[in-house]
Design goal:
By secondary structure, this protein is mainly β. The chain has a domain at 23-111: Uncharacterised protein PF15525, DUF4652 (Lipocalin). It contains no helices and 24 strands. Strands 1-2-3-4 form a four-stranded antiparallel sheet, with no helix packed on it. A hairpin with a 7-residue loop joins strand 3 and strand 4. The relative contact order is 0.14.
Amino acid sequence: MKLIRILSLAALCSLTDFAPSAAHEDVGPAWSPDGEYVYFYSYRGDVAQLYRMLPDGSEQTRLTDGQFHSWWATPISKGELIVVSDKTREQRFSGSDLYLYEISGETYKQLTFSPEGSNRWAVSPVLSQDKNQLAYLVKTEGYQSRETKLMVLDLASGHTKHVLQKQKSIQVFTMSADGQTILYATQRNGHPALVAATAGTGEEHVVLLQQEKGKGAFYDLTYTADGERVAFSYSRGDFAEAEIYSMNSDGSGVVQLTHNKAADLYPRWSPDAGRIVFASLRDGDFTEIYSMNADGSNQRNLTNTGQPAE
């Protein structure tokens, strides 16, 4: 049986490998700004829909119920989310744009506009703390495109600018709460590296350089609200070996938080930096949402939707 693969920063397969399945795939957790809720998207139905739950995994509630996919919830408030969707596409997985989704009215306001007929993906939205700047990646030639553009949208004016224009291969990125620092993963002399760039000047410096050459990869990274710590998912080899780590924002104090034989992905800090939610494949072929303390202790399965029958 072909499996629906998660559409996340950790997705390595071709989009042509997607196939309908009864998979309960729970992916992409994100905290509400006040820490009251955890949002995620799930393939519990025919397409990906957004869900919300309490931090202990209770009161799981579906927020969207459309015919198009909704991925990567980025909460602005309890009532509004930034989402990635193929809502305007006639063919699924043929590209995506960013939308502002209003929960109570179930309305979508389009924020990015891909050229008609293109295979352009706007993905990975990151919101500044003042909620004025929305950074995101554009994959110009399909989801697996190596050439990427890092864009920043001013939500008040609607103005979009291209930042870090000299860097064409940004694998994943995050932005500090004040919008002044961009931390991104790329290759430096064949080695996986995390590079910090000042948004205004473009000045860059390598924060973390891994020893693996030609195989190691970062799958996701995120700052704490105060910008002091970073959590990231990294594999020294195959995707299945991805584990979650944390470090100081200057690259010191790297600590491995998860240790198992299945991929752990998409870490997100709680607003007080005391807990991390993440997605894990440790329970089988489909991801579920977990939480843990900031030091890696007390790892708990939150969604526990179970695995489908063959």
